[in-house]
Amino acid sequence: MLPLVLIPGIQGRCEYMRRTVEALSLRFHVVTFSLSGETMDDYVDQVSRALDDRKIERAIICGVSFGGFIALRFAANTPGRTVALVLASTPAPAWCLTRRHKLYARLPRLLGPLFMVETPWRLRSELVSALPDWRARWAFKRDALRTFLAAPLPLTAMAARARMIDRLDVGADCDRVTVPTLIVTGERELDRVVSASQSLEYVRLINGARGTVLERTGHVGTMTRPDAFAALVHNFLAESDLNLEDRRPERTHGSAPTPGRVA
Fold it and tell me: Is the domain defined by 3-97+157-247 classed in CATH 3.40.720.10?
């Protein structure tokens, strides 16, 4: 199987990506980790170390939300180690924190609990759409609660990463990406965290990039519909000039959906 590095979002904990890892592992050799460091360079170095520790020379680099910035910088800096780039629900190049979230980022210990309280409300419509069966929604919520209790959110580190986004200039990184690139967003009406339509701006900025919408999802589609996300990534790579099937000793039977909108 081709190796795939999965970089988590702003919470930085790989435990929250368990469903995504399980789905991707049916098609790829998945490498993931929790974020550690204080700068973008620290996070990019983590990707290199993760590959070095496993003696992997090249891999698909997939970043989710904030992790997309890390994946983009790694692909721009080390094209020789990047087979392909996948950005999932990554904030737009010119994305800025709202006034409220800037306040949260300045006072994470005091106001962080308010951020956590409002999160379920922001995701409510997405969960109903992605998981129409109420039993599936409750199972997802129970799993999320167990994960939260086992791996509490690092509010101070999250605030530092949020402030980092405001200082990032990704234009130069986009110019230097030379590998096949897939931009994945949820539906415009369902992503209440970032603008899905603005995230597709990466299609214009990265040479040859392709954009796709994972239907019935918003910002956390990689976790609410992980099987569909994994199939979409696999299909994109199979249709790129990577000879994917010949390089995978274990073939996945059945067909994957054509890149585009995945229902």
Answer: no
